[in-house]
Amino acid sequence: MQTRKLGRQGLEVSAVGLGCMGMSEFYAGRDEAESIATIHRALDLGVTFLDTADMYGVGANEELVGRAVRERREWVVVATKFGNVRGDDGSFKGISGRPEYVREACDASLKRLDLDVIDLYYQHRVDPQVPIEDTVGAMAELVAAGKVKYLGLSEAGPETIRRAHATHPISALQTEYSLWSRDPEAEILPTLRELGIGFVPYSPLGRGFLTGQFKTPDDLPADDYRRNSPRFQGEAFTRNLDLVAEIERLASEKGCTPAQLALAWVLAQGDDVAPIPGTKRRKYLEDNLGALQVTLDQADLARIDKVLPAGAAAGTRYPEAGMATLNL
After folding, report:
1. pLDDT digits over 187-210, tens only?
2. Could you read off the pLDDT of 49-91 as tens digits, one per residue?
3. Taking the CB of the first residue and of the last residue of the chain, which one, N or C, has fewer CB atoms within 10 A?
């Protein structure tokens, strides 16, 4: 397994990680036994980087990940997040970056994960009501206390990243990035590289759309979160199918699957990039890891850029309320 360094503080992870969110919520077809088997298979194949959050399944995903890694803790980098506050009934109660909440959330995550220390701790969304210096200051206290090793942010804007990094070194920023979500290229990536912060793209397969598995909106189960995504609806869905057709054509020429081509493109964006494609099934995990064997040269990248330029996707990443929480 190839590895990549995130930040300048010593964090090193497998080049491809595993996003665990869908194992507990948002996507249909969940099976806990298969999810744990998928995590174990990932570890067997050299994946060391697992991503979860306290909001996924209202804590259930952290508990699942904790059970799955219990016997192999020394080989795993566990990343989790705080900041999206939910009630026991799953209701969303807003975003919090209050220092006292940071401490409470960390202790709760450690208990659910059954860990002594969290390897990478992200603020899931920026709280516009709390100065980032206060939030990251509290996160830094967790590092000093030995509860957290490295700090990260998710969906933060360039100015917030700079202020956070000045408070305590930030090792990684997590943001959506793929062939149909290329917004970070304008300002986020240059800022990260100036400061020496690693980049962790989530949804590098466009929430599964770029794999070619969805041909009509009806292919999505009724209770699947993606039915609420603007990119999976109406005319946007139809227009985005045209992008997938281009990916399928290029993948065929390279002798790989569409998922492998899309992931190989993300991996080719730099040695400081470690994507975390999510899956809850072993067969998709193994297909995703095949991307590490796909080599894209400059000519390939130029062709991809021509047919899938930045801004090509139709529809926004989230509904309006979700978009309002991004890049703060």
Report:
1. 999 999 999 999 999 999 998 889
2. 999 999 999 999 999 999 999 988 888 999 999 999 999 888 9
3. N
Give the type of residue at 321: A
How many Å from the N-terminal Cα to the C-terminal Cα in the chain?
A: 35
Q: Which residues pair with 89 in a beta bridge?
A: none
The tokens describing 112, both together, are 């659910």
Sequence-distant (≥ 6) Cβ neighbours of residue 315 within 8 angstroms: 229, 230, 231, 232, 233, 236, 240
Runs of H (alpha helix) within the chain: 32-44, 60-69, 99-113, 132-144, 158-167, 188-195, 234-254, 258-267, 282-289, 298-307, 320-323
Torsion of CA 320, 325, 58, 164, to 10 degrees: 170
Grouping H, G, I as helix, E, B as strand and the rest as coil, residue 165 is: helix
Residue of 77, 57, 100, 92 whose CA lies nearest to 17:
77
Q: Nearest to residue 313, comparing CAs of 174, 193, 152, 177?
A: 177
* Helices and strands counted in the chain (H then E): 11, 11
Number of Cβ within a 10 Å radius of residue 222: 7
Q: Tokens 């989230």 label which residue?
A: 318
Interstrand relation of 84-86 and 92-95 (parallel, antiparallel or unpaired):
antiparallel
Residues 43, 300: Cα–Cα separation, whole Å: 31
Q: Which residue has the higher pLDDT, 295 or 75?
A: 295
Q: What mean pLDDT do residues 214-231 have?
A: 82
* Positions marked catalytic: 56
